[in-house]
Design brief:
heterodimer, A: about 100 residues, mainly alpha, Arc Repressor Mutant, subunit A, two-stranded antiparallel sheet, elongated, B: about 375 residues, alpha/beta, FAD/NAD(P)-binding domain, D-Amino Acid Oxidase, Chain A, domain 2, 2 domains, 8-stranded mixed sheet, about 30% helix, globular
């Protein structure tokens, strides 16, 4: 059970999370930065709700509000640098006309 | 929370925590106050670089001494801070840049730094993905002992060691007022209670100006918004941090394989949003591909925003304030707080514990902005 993967992007187990909480990392953001939770392609969309529950259970903290979860930012999916670097076609057409 | 302390540190970034560690190691009764969590400000959002190549003597001296300390810090704090010394390569684009580089390299060499001007072939040897002709670059300066470390872990390591030494670290605690009497500090008020103290260190980064205003001290600092992108993880490709002061770009491959970097886009620097701007992402992607064309098919994974706490000469404000000697400044790092933290926190500890000062601390005192006697750091990027 403790070997269950909590964060699939960064291969972090339930045990890793519990150990960090017991070491004193009792803030969602500190846990994230200590373990790299949410630093993979899903940006925490899969792992952070689980980590939040583990943290509540382990510390007996009152419910941690959802808005304290790390905010996902663009890009929602990984995007190649060449696409990001390309000129905006619509903008270019407007400039040309 | 304690109600009395010899020193109260405001700010739980790498400098606040480093100072809590150094002071508590000297037996000073120290309390640190952080409004969010440790490393929640600029420390946790920085590019993680550690550089010794500077245009001003003070910054170079601080950085050279910091690197010596970074080299033994994991052992000292019993916590792996993931230091890697892959060097910093600063691109030189034209003859004028070459002359400037020669001048700065000779200053840095005179301070004992191992740094040299390298050819475009040597640039490619060090970082095979670079295309000097496409950058375009005619050479670079390279210092092999520059590098990077993990800012979160360094901060947590300092915090943990400080706690072991007996320092009290209070996160999610907001300073609401600093009480003074004449030229003395008497207490710090927070949303969780009041702490009596006569010495306060202002390590609040972007909030330092606000903190100083609580005791009527005016700081010239201002915030500049900066963005960073991180790519997907790649096999190890290069170890050096690549930077250019002309383009403002910096990028490196981190231990976990992702390429992390930033570049300034002036019109995006004064807003407060933490969301990525298309101007930045596009400019960064274009410039990165110009430097390393092979990266064009690599995916951008993530993005984040942080703020530089900038001073008029892009150098930190350190030491006691003349009008209020118990109020010590440790801010205004202008984007370089992480890399300078080992030595600045050690020097400030010596100043607080034994009133020992030195030439560098004196030249970085707040009073320089009043007298106008300062030299600006030009080696700034990102």
């Amino acid at each position: 059970m403790k070997k269950s993967i909590v964060c699939r992007c960064e291969d972090i187990t339930e045990e890793d999370v519990l150990c960090a909480i017991r070491e004193g990392y009792t803030d969602l953001e500190e846990l994230r930065k200590k373990l790299r939770l949410g630093m993979g392609p899903c940006q925490g969309r899969c792992c952070m709700p689980l980590v939040k529950r583990l943290l509540q259970k382990e510390t007996g903290k009152a419910a941690i509000p959802d808005d304290s979860l790390h905010k996902a930012r663009p890009p929602v999916v990984p995007i190649p640098l060449s696409s990001l670097a390309s000129e905006d076609k619509k903008q270019k057409e407007e400039e040309d006309s | 929370m304690k109600t009395k302390a010899e020193v109260v540190i405001i700010g739980g970034g790498v400098n606040g925590c480093g100072l809590a560690y150094n002071l508590s190691k000297q037996g000073v009764d120290t309390v640190l106050l952080e409004s969010h969590y440790l490393s929640s400000g600029a420390t946790g959002r920085c590019g993680a670089g550690i550089r010794q190549q500077w245009s001003t003597k003070e910054n170079a001296l601080l950085a050279i001494q910091s690197v010596k300390m970074f080299e033994t810090l994991s052992k000292e704090l019993d916590y792996d801070i993931e230091l890697r010394q892959g060097g910093y390569m600063i691109a030189i684009h034209d003859e004028e840049g070459m002359r400037e580089a020669e001048e700065n390299v000779s200053l840095q060499k005179s301070l004992g730094l191992d740094v040299d001007i390298i050819t475009t072939d040597e640039m490619v040897d060090i970082a095979p993905l670079l295309d000097p002709e496409n950058i375009p670059a005619i050479g670079a300066t390279f210092c092999p002992t520059d590098g990077h470390a993990n800012p979160f872990k360094t901060t947590f390591a300092y915090g943990q060691a400080a706690r072991k030494n007996g320092a009290e670290i209070n996160t999610h605690t907001t300073v609401t007022d600093i009480k003074t009497k004449g030229k003395k500090i008497v207490a710090v008020k927070t949303d969780r209670g009041t702490i009596k103290t006569d010495t306060v260190v202002n390590c609040a980064g972007i909030n330092s100006k606000e903190i100083a205003a609580l005791c009527d001290i005016s700081l010239p600092n201002y915030g500049l918004r900066k963005e960073i992108i991180a790519t997907e993880r790649l096999q190890p490709l290069f170890e050096a941090m690549i930077i250019s002061f002309k383009d403002g770009i910096y990028f490196s491959q981190q231990d976990h394989g992702q390429i992390v970097g930033g570049i300034p886009v002036s019109e995006t620097q004064t807003t407060c949003s933490s969301m990525p701007t298309t101007q930045f992402v596009k400019h960064m992607a274009q410039t990165l591909i110009r430097y390393a064309p092979r990266l064009k098919d690599i995916n951008m994974l993530r993005h984040w925003t942080g703020f530089y706490d900038v001073t008029p000469d892009a150098r930190p404000i350190l030491g006691a304030v003349d009008e209020l000697p118990g109020f010590i400044q440790c801010n205004g790092f202008s984007g370089h707080g992480f890399m300078l933290s080992p030595i600045t926190t050690k020097m400030l500890t010596e100043l607080i514990v034994s009133e020992k000062t030195n030439e560098v601390l004196e030249s970085l005192n707040l009073r320089r902005f009043e007298s106008g006697d300062f030299e600006s750091e030009t080696y700034v990027c990102g």
